[in-house]
Amino acid sequence: MSHHRDRITACMLGMAVCLCIAVFTALSVMRYDAFHAATFDLGLTAQVMWNTAYGRVFETSIDRATNAALIGSYLGNHVQPILLLLAPFYRLWPDPRLLLVVQSVALGIAALPLYEIARRRSGRPTTALVIACCYLAYPALGFLNLFDFHVIALSIPLVFLAYWAWQDNRPVWFWIAVLLALFTKEEMAIPLWMWGLVNLLRRERRLPSLSLLVLTGVWLVLCVGFIVPFYNEGQPYRFLQLWSYLPGFSSLPTVQGGLP
Q1: In this predicted model, what pLDDT tens digit does every residue of 141-154 receive, in sequence order?
Q2: With helix as H, strand as E and coil as C, how does 16-53 read?
């Protein structure tokens, strides 16, 4: 009886995920077809993806900090190596709508590891189903899905996957998910670093927690301190300005041209 109930719950979850993916894929593509898409970030990412797919890795002419006429590297803005994994698919279908489909699928399937997390924590498949459906129906998630394309949105299923792997003691899946989440955007190192710190303070698996702290800290310093300045004509990481309102951050260096 319990096994039968679990199968029904799993089927309902699968239908909810498929429905969510189908609806938001259709809505985001219709929005694009109606000329409501914008340069930031769909146009920018589409150009970077097209160039990368055809051998000009991370090349862009959009949003140069000091010289709008320069052809430069997107790495001068953000470090998002996960785009390299999408490039072969963009070569097959070089269309911005591919990014919209990928985003809808990624946000939809994030409900699957979330369901497993909730089921393990609550011990009740029905409760886990409700939580997963609440995630899919969350208005902010819908707004994110329909607001063009943002690479960091792909971190949501990856973080859920990492937490499931941590909870289920699957180290290989955990580190794969962590690395891919870091590759969605350089700033993902901050919440993942905090996760490692919390685990360390709770004395929960000290070695993996310490490893997570070191990995995320090194990645953040590498991205912000070396990669971005190298590809941005020697200028500092421009998005540090977003933290300037915080105590101790008001004297952060700025870049010519400001933020988009």
Answers
A1: 999 999 999 999 99
A2: HHHHHHHHHHHHHHHHHHCCCCCHHHHHHHHHHHHHHH
